[in-house]
Amino acid sequence: MIAEDEWLLASDLAKFFADMGVIILGPVATVEQAEQHARMAEAAILDIDLKGRHVFPIADELMRRNVPFVFFSGYDEIAIPEHLRFASSLSKSSSQAAVSDALFPPEPQPGSGTPAVAQPASTADDIVALLPKLRLTARLLLDDAGASDRLVERTLERALEDIDKRSAGSSIADWLNAIMREIAHSRGASLLH
């Protein structure tokens, strides 16, 4: 979902993500319109100030559903509530690629010099945190919402069956994405029914 009240900027963002195969909700220019789409959103770009109203209630709804979002604003002086400060906050001068990376941070590559931050999460917690990304990947692979959800389900079922086959040093995200792509390739058409 793109919640942005500057039409040209919203249009550019929509085109960038649509070219990647993403289904765009909006762009919307008011908090009321954003509320209508928030329940269906799988990721969101939120201008903090939409026609004089803050989008923090929308961010709360997305956070409750574990949907990735990024604040996108032209104002430095707007204070983000403490409980939402974990979210990425970019200026409107940021590139479209920076917005994409803020929504879906790339995994650090081995030997890249970028240290990975240690996470005290269990494998189950890691998988739960990856669900929004898995759903987006599924939507990019299959253009049907129902089929995409079935693809995520099949991916998780296969992961449970093959948990012992996962190599010890592999990233959970890479492992799940490989399973998803294999299922989409071999059974994509059957997921549509």
From TrEMBL:
InterPro entries in UniProt: CheY-like_superfamily
Top-level taxon of the source organism: Bacteria
Stretch list, region Disordered: 99-120
SUPFAM superfamilies reported for this sequence: CheY-like
Protein name: Response regulator
The organism's taxonomic lineage, starting at the top: Bacteria, Pseudomonadati, Pseudomonadota, Alphaproteobacteria, Hyphomicrobiales
